Amino acid sequence: MTAADSNNPLIAAIQMNSLGEVAPNLARADDLLADAAKRGATLAVLPENFALMGARETDKLGVAEPDATTPEAADAATPIQDFLARAARDYGLWIVAGTIPIASHEPDRVYAACCVYNDSGERVARYDKIHLFDVGVPDSAEAYRESATFVPGLPEPLVIDTPFGMLGLSVCYDLRFPELYRALSAAGAEIIVAPSAFTHTTGSAHWHVLTRARAIENLATLIAPNQSGHHASGRQTYGHSLIVDSWGQVQAEATSDANEVVIATLDRKRIQTLREGFPCLTHRRLF
């Protein structure tokens, strides 16, 4: 990547309608990542649960993989992680891999792991979703209890250095906890990702408000790919995958319930200029 490209890279949010089996989801993700690369993107973010939206919440336990970077994975199959490493290398993309089920020390619960791969196919970060979606959705019959099958990650913000700037990691329900995003911006995040599977009910009420608010509050570009449409469990997700700039303006948005790649230009100088001229991050008095 040239110096000019590193200041204005193309970034992609990948929307998916993930199915109840891993193989077809990986094939879809491969096509979408290839399309993002063909269109010039150098960073692509997949949605939460991109590899599986099962008919039952326990379906993820059957496809959970050991962490491919650990000795426990030496003799184990890790097809999802192998796919991600290969795709990143083949397409020359940095990939933020939504979430995938990574085995935990508990047989009936896994981690919702957001893994980051560089354009050489090396895994450079792993963030385990901190906030689990244990809710009854108001004014509907919907209820979710992610803690039944997920182990929460440690409450530690994760920001990594990339060719595109400092990148902060979050997932879906995390969007409702602004203190996490404050911690990410305090740690230097210029770009924050929020791969999601927002329900249609909560998304239609809050998706745009939350994503834009987190970008505005932190003067950070937010990349928020979402699941969309109906899934094997009967769940309906909201779509409207977004890229929001550091002033809170929507740069790109998915326009259908289909699998879709949305692309925008990341203006790193704009982020710096805003933070210098409108320094609200340094004006905070309550901690």
TrEMBL record:
Any matching Pfam family: CN_hydrolase
Keywords for the protein's UniProt record, in alphabetical order: Hydrolase
Domain CN hydrolase: 9-268
Source organism, top-level taxon: Bacteria
Gene3D superfamilies assigned: Carbon-nitrogen hydrolase
InterPro entries: C-N_Hydrolase (IPR003010), C-N_Hydrolase_sf (IPR036526), Nit1/2_C-N_Hydrolase (IPR045254), UPF0012_CS (IPR001110)
Alphabetized PANTHER family for the sequence: DEAMINATED GLUTATHIONE AMIDASE, NITRILASE-RELATED
Similarity comment text for this entry: Belongs to the carbon-nitrogen hydrolase superfamily. NIT1/NIT2 family.
Name of the featured protein: Nitrilase
Organism, scientific name: Salinisphaera dokdonensis CL-ES53
